[in-house]
Fold each of these.
Amino acid sequence: MRGLKWRATDAFLTRDRSHSPDCPPAGGQPPLLLLHGTGGDENDLLPLGQALALGRALISPRGQVLENGMPRFFRGLAEGAFDFDDVRRRGHELADFVAAARVAYGLEAPVALGFSNGANIAAAMLLLRPEALAGAILLRAMVPLDTVPKPDLSGKRVLLVSGRADPILPLENARRLADLLRTAGAEVQHETLATGHALAQDDLRLATAWLNRKD
């Protein structure tokens, strides 16, 4: 299954062995599903994922929607404005991809690690297909859907990290996402950093502490 293109949706690609889980994660830890931001690809979050992995398998697909030549996980209508029908379709496609990867490699449900567009598709998956993920680290995410379903997220942990000076994602929108996930039963930790939209060293610090937390 190495280098597999997922024919079920023809939408995602793990290009080679370094980007696909060749063995189950050490210590029974769930794998990380790395979801890049607009203009990124399957390589972008690998350094962050490897820093956090601690023996976990990494799954790193490339978004197959192109916006001015830049890969994304779903269509945008304008900055901060989404094609909600496409969000739903792509969210289900990504959930199907995860299900296929779990069968192919014998993996547990992954924890999504998404940035910006990748964080938004991860949030959509939590709301649309909660069984696909064990939890999520959402870096610079906002509410991804116009009509929000009512999933049962009991037992799922979510770390949401926002930038106080983010010019793209309003902080109030991120707070609304945190409230939606909590209402659905998720345990949500929402942190706000003194930064903008770009990733900062504190994102790694917070994600590391969150993943290593012992309940």
Amino acid sequence: MTAFKTLDDLGDVTGKVALVRVDLNLPMKDGLVTDETRIRASLPTIVDLAAKGAKVLLLAHFGRPKGERVSTMSLSLVVGAVEKALGKEIMFVPEVSGPVVEQSVGILRPGDVAILENTRFWKGEEKNDPEFAKAIAEVGDFYVNDAFSAAHRAHATTEGLAHLLPAYAGRSMQAELEALDAALGNPEKPVAAVVGGAKVSSKLDVLKHLVGQVDHLIIGGGMANTFLAAKGVDVGKSLCEHDLTGTASEILETADKAGCTVHLPYEVVVSKEFAANPPSLRTCNVHEVAADEMILDVGPSAVEALADVLKTCRTLVWNGPMGAFETEPFDAATVALAKTAAALTSEGSLTSVAGGGDTVAALNHAGVAADFSYISTAGGAFLEWMEGKELPGVAALSS
């Protein structure tokens, strides 16, 4: 793993100004924050810096205002939720640089926290404009990046600032990078990856990268149908990208050469309609799918065999559900396999790292999210990391 500095490497920062990039792109309804996960993720960093006596200026984006001031995307809307989580008052500053920010810094006492306005109100943010980054950096003494979820973007506050000020990884960023390193950077072998979801097309790069990295690749969800079709299986009316069967065959060949075992469902749960508990529901061998049926989940015997695979592994990376988990009973395979992974993690034989929106929802649904070694709430950044790409926000911390 590339070396980067953490908050433990900070000297005396009393009265110093910390520019801290966090993720406050929060879900809202009727002007209220509906999920505080991202606020809670940044609390250890904010609390740590405030306790050390720094003046903490939080930088974040909110929505896609495309370089314009949009009142419904002002970060002033999330101040109340952050104050509540932090248990102290926070100053809101309607700018990100210039005299208003300088005056605000003058008013702040050591240990105080302020939120600056939505960085995307300025075009320079997404363009990673050096002048824009320089203007923000003028008030800061050091920079902390605690937003892994935005680390795959080279923006002024995610990448540019790291080159202008002493740069450190915040607690959330540090935890994420250490977990990812344990999962694919320098993992304990054998390594298994579970990749599910609807379409192969959205995870092509992930699959291509993983076959060279892991010992077992477990493919579930709609994308498994494309691989089954590539092997000559008639998948009936199932969701399947028939135009990608050639690519699927290539991935299987690459896996074979790399010594990676690809696990596809041999027993499936099918139905003539996609609805909760449909009358036409049945479990069958994958070669017995009728022309008017669709595959909607992995069958119980196949899941048991996959559980046995996990028992031989030391590391697991999970992205995407095994079936159409939002609709019962097509959540059964995802829940069963997730429970096995959680139990193996709890007993200390498996390091399990999961990420991606659907994945987090599926593991919460299975009631096992807390038992995994690490769950990443970053969507795009987690996927790009699984593709083996360098993330600009992370690379900048180690330069």
Amino acid sequence: MLKVGDKLPAGSLSEFVEVEGNGCSIGPNTFDIEKATAGKNVAMFALPGAYTPTCSAKHVPGYVEKADALKAAGVDEIWCVSVNDPFVMGAWGRDQHSAGKIRMLADGSADFAKATGLTLDLTTRGMGLRSNRYSMLVVDGVVKTLNVEGPGKFEVSDADTMLVQAKQVLA
């Protein structure tokens, strides 16, 4: 399982891009994780699924609300990662008003979740293999903080915890 001090696993994530520019076309675009985190401070949070109750009511809204404070603390980008396709993540991002604040990244086949070892098996609920709920602060591709939630919990991966950690680590 991924731990503090580890480099993020190699691979890619996808994002639905709304506006063409910066080498990205409109629609789903795939990004290399290593290149996308190089030289950046990234507050990343992952969750089991788009449009699910806790994720939609608390997790994403908290990061939308705290986006400016996180950036003021030295965070370059905020990433939300979920085992969904980029179309769903794009639609969910529009519904959550995350544009310009959070990159809504799709891990469609759970490859990133599997590579981190932070998976959640929801097969009995008809949702298959998903990402566990967690947050991490990543500096130049290296995990500096990692906050993994217990089953059914939402206590340590929230935006307030990430903000405190960003202020400590990036000061």
